[in-house]
Design goal:
mainly alpha
Length: about 170
């Protein structure tokens, strides 16, 4: 299925679920993710993962090659020119492009076969929570402290004093 059409479908499900069916936003997002994940074809998943694995493998091989070149130049007692060495490393890795593509294709096919829709969704949700979970928890703690201490009300009253009651939407 066309990726733009998938995006619009997911967006429609999330917005429709929230606005028309009055679903909780989290539930609408999960429903949208399940629908988009179910509609996404294996070939799109394989292509996306192949691109990801190929980029990672090229980056890793280039870094490894660059490190080897720097060590070789330093061992010879010379000062390494990083721009030149980087370009040499890129050219040497480019000669291995076919092997990298074959390995990336193999890994992508294995990923697509081993990860059904629900597993991909739960994995993505877990990695997102891992990245921003602590930030959200700390924001909740700070917000509760502002409410309990009366600081939130003071902030609101100060903003309203500056912009007036008619400017409340701006103050918000």
């Amino acid at each position: 299925m066309n990726p733009v059409l998938l995006l619009l479908t997911g967006l429609g499900i999330v917005l429709g679920g929230i606005l028309w069916f009055r679903l909780h936003p989290f539930m609408a997002l999960i429903l949208g993710a399940c629908c988009v994940g179910g509609l996404t074809g294996q070939e799109n998943i394989t292509l996306a993962m192949q691109s990801k694995y190929r980029s990672e493998m090229i980056r890793s091989a280039t870094t490894k090659q660059l490190t080897q070149e720097i060590v070789r130049v330093k061992a010879a007692g010379e000062v390494p020119d990083l721009a030149v060495l980087r370009e040499q490393a890129r050219r040497q890795v480019a000669t291995q492009a076919d092997a990298i593509d074959a390995e990336a294709t193999k890994k992508a096919a294995e990923y697509a076969a081993a990860n059904p829709t629900f597993r991909r969704i739960t994995s993505a949700l877990g990695s997102t929570c891992e990245k921003i979970g602590l930030l959200i928890a700390m924001a909740c703690v700070i917000g509760r402290c502002l409410l309990a201490s009366g600081a939130a009300e003071r902030i609101v009253r100060s903003a309203l004093a500056i912009v007036g009651p008619r400017g409340a939407p701006i103050a918000f």
